[in-house]
Amino acid sequence: xxxxxxxxxxxxxxxxxxxxxxxxxxxxxxxxxxxxxxxxxxxxxxxxxxxxxxxxxxxxxxxxxxxxxxxxxxxxxxxxxxxxxxxxxxxxxxxxxxxxxxxxxxxxxxxxxxxxxxxxxxxxxxxxxxxxxxxxxxxxxxxxxxxxxxxxxxxxxxxxxxxxxxxxxxxxxx
Length: 174
Description:
Elements: H1 2-18, H2 29-40, H3 46-53, H4 57-69, E1 89-97, H5 102-111, E2 115-120, E3 127-133, H6 136-147, E4 150-156
C-alpha cells in the first residue's frame, strides 16, 4: 500500500511540472524569486526584497512594476476576517440559468456585494459563486433573488482546511 501511495505522489509531481509549459517569458528565475518572496511576505520592504534576491532596490522596483504592468501581479490583497464583519455564513452556490437568463445572472452576481466570487463553469450548472451572509435567512433571501433566473444548489462551508493560497510556481531560483 505504501509503494502505491509513493507512486501516486510521484505521478502527481510529474503532472505538476507539465502544467508549467506555457509560462510567461517574463518569469525568468529572478522574477520567480521575487514572486516567491512577495507571495510569502506581500508587505516586504523593497530594500529587504532586494537584499534577499541579490539585486539593487531600483532594479527590484523596476521588475515589480513590469510584473504589474504585464498583469502577472494583479493586485495586493487585504484579507479581512468575515466573522469580524458579522458574516458568519459562507456558501458555494451553483446556478443553472433558465433559457435566456444567463446575462441576468451575471448582472445580478456583479451587483450583489454578498457574492464575493463568481465563476462561469462547465457541466450541468453555468455558474459557481462564493457568497457570504450574516444568517441563514439572509442566505435564503439571496438565493431567492437568483431563483428568478434559474435553479440553485448551495453548499454551506463548515470549515476550510486549505485557506486561499498563492498558485504553485514553476521551479526556479529559490
